[in-house]
Amino acid sequence: MERRLQITADGSHTVSVPEWNVTYHSIHGAIRESLHVYIEEGLKYQLSKKAGDVLSILEMGFGTGLNALLTFRESIRERKRIYYQTIEQYPLTYTETDPLNYAEQLKEPSSQSCLITLHSVPWDEDVQLHPDFCLHKIHGALQDVVFTRAFDIVYYDAFDPVAQPELWTEDIFGKLYNCLVPGGILVTYCSKGNVRRAMMAAGFTVEKLPGPPHKREMIRAIR
Length: 223
Description:
By secondary structure, this protein is of the alpha/beta class. Helices cover 31% and strands 29% of the residues.
């Protein structure tokens, strides 16, 4: 599968897959999209509601590591302990991740070493990257994962339903519903009608929210 580095409208990188006609992030701004969908409407929303020691997050689609990087950054800022589990079937190589310019665009040089660490730590085991942040990367397919813990948030960042329809079904959302705590949420950039219906059939209460730049809506689904 060929993958190419691409600059998005806010100056930050994404990766494109020409064969599938998809990109890992919005072409209108990779960092802007991740901050809006996953940090503002996911992480910060849940932090405002949840008490307790550790917030557990499941990410579907580790990709460039951008969502993990921004979450790690927020964990340190807020002094909030986070357990972050992420699933990726097709990991990027060092050659593909090394040029990513997120640290430059965030104006935080220290984020570059953090991003390198996120990509270089071992797969399929807990890695304590900081007293407040534990990472567990799963190399595999969501369909095959057996969850052994419950989560407060799911970042659902799979490729769109045209490219990967098998990841936007009632069965998949049922699996994710069952791995969330009561009151847990799933956030995603995709707000298509068939996706909302599949989520509701799985038991979620679905909210349509304003989307990131150039996208009218996004979804926050609540167990």
